[in-house]
Amino acid sequence: IPVRIYPDLKEGSKFAAREIAELIRSKQAAGLSCVLGLATGSTPRSMYAELVRMHKEDGLSFRNVITFNLDEYYPIENDALQSYNRFMHTHLFDHIDIDPKNIHIPNGEIPKEEIKAHCVAYERMIEEAGGIDLQVLGIGNNGHIGFNEPGSSIMSRTRLVTLDTSTRIANSHEFANISDVPRLAITMGISTILKAKRILLMAWGPAKAAVVQKSVEDNITEQIPASLLQQHNESLFILDEVAAADLT
Ligand code: F6R
Question: Can you tell me which residues form the catalytic site (predicted)?
Fold first, then answer.
């Protein structure tokens, strides 16, 4: 997997934002929509801030953009402080000119018996939009992408999954108590992600160095879901120097 290494997350985030802005503008010029797959968590915050700045200061319009988020906790209320729905509105959607009907996020509020149909519909909506042009990813300390935890099949599609204890601990700072972190989530699958035309995975900070090294340089294994990106010929890791420190 090719990597680009930046002095800090600000510079790396600006690069990612510029790549996205360029794609949006070239699609606009051709009269086409631009389909983005989006991630949440601490990693993409600075990139979203840069996209908002580009909208406000550089005239970047999102009128032709269609988005599909990777994942959402289950169950969770859409406007709960910790929901990924709320995260996306706070960090991006509330500040840009995207058409609200072009926003798609797995719904953490639907009744359990409707989850299967919801996941099937999510996959169908991605296909009907023409597939994901560019997918943004972070990486979990355990190598997860989206909420595809170690052991997830390369064939997996959007579905309900059980979060690893390590993931619940890593994300517990958002919640009052570890027991408040949902045990389940709805996530795009590995095959959903691998169907994207282009993939940008960002990783910042020393905690990600070991798993970045394994994903990029070790064997492809479902035990390190991000290593499956080695099978994709348009994927790129965007790293800061500390996250890249273990690469040979
Ligand atoms: C979030 C997601 C997760 C995160 C990963 C890293 O939508 O899909 O895979 O990207 O857990 O989280 P942070 O960025 O908080 O370190």
Answer: 71, 142, 144, 149
